[in-house]
Amino acid sequence: MTLHVTVNDAQTGAPRCDVKAVIAVVGLAIEARIAGAPAMIAEGDRTAFYLRDAIRHGARGIISFGVCGGLDPKLRPGNIVIASSVFAAKDEAYPADHPWAEELLRMIPGASYAAIAGVASPMTSLEERRDFHGITGAVAADMESQIVARIASELRIPFAVCRVVLNPAHRKLPRAALIDIGPAGKPELRKIGRSLVQDPGQLPGLSRLAVDSVMAVMALRSAKRRLGAHFGFPHLCSRDRVPIPTRALETIATRA
Question: Which residues does the UniProt record annotate as the domain Nucleoside phosphorylase (predicted)?
Fold first, then answer.
């Protein structure tokens, strides 16, 4: 993937914006469709490699975009959270780019501004979410933001997080909803159906989740319309590119 950032206008010499300067990292195919190009569906360890390669080719900012699970009991399906920071692990937190976060909050009135957690797997119990929220202060969790935060910090480029609550803190997910997402960010419908046949008692929970999903997707589409193609990136037309350390560039070249 080659992403060009800023080119000079042939007549004026002024920098010209390029939408491909911002990469959206998502976890689901529907999130990728809403985000538009260029959006990258997280694929485990390969995600970091692809992000480094995109940054090597000129990307200037990364945004974690999509749905999330609520940890703060005050959040409801469809509520939007802009990250002030990302909690990635014990004693590992990364501040989001403040000018970018401010622009997102300006463009999405009513969005919350708070810490978000990036986790390796969904939190399955109500007690786990409550305790995690109490210890870290994170109001929501997703499975991509920690990757974005770590890569952005490593290469010293701005990152932001815009997430919409799907599953609120007080609602336990049915077992079928915890089945691993399949290739290209699409749910494994056969596995979900098999789980439902084995345990029909999940049906009410899945029905409630379907309603919540509709609300979350509508809110995510609305947020993207407000943010536009550039995701509100405030540094897009700056002449000064955020420098990438030589050591980081050498690391990228070795891995590419």
Answer: 56-172
Residue whose token pair is 């997707």 = 217
**Helix, coil or strand: residue 160:** strand
Domain boundaries, the chain: 7-255
With a CB cutoff of 8 Å and minimum separation 6, the contacts of 86 are: 64, 93, 94, 96, 115, 116, 117, 118, 145, 146, 148, 149, 161
Task: Tell me if the domain spanning 7-255 has CATH number 3.40.50.300.
Answer: no
Predicted TM-score (pTM) of the model is 0.80
Per-residue pLDDT 10s for the chain (256 aa) are 333 332 223 333 333 344 368 999 999 999 999 999 788 998 877 888 888 888 888 889 999 999 999 999 999 999 999 999 999 988 899 999 999 999 999 999 999 999 999 998 888 789 999 999 999 999 999 999 999 999 999 999 999 999 999 999 988 876 656 556 656 566 666 666 665 567 776 677 777 888 999 999 999 999 999 999 899 999 876 544 443 333 333 332 333 3
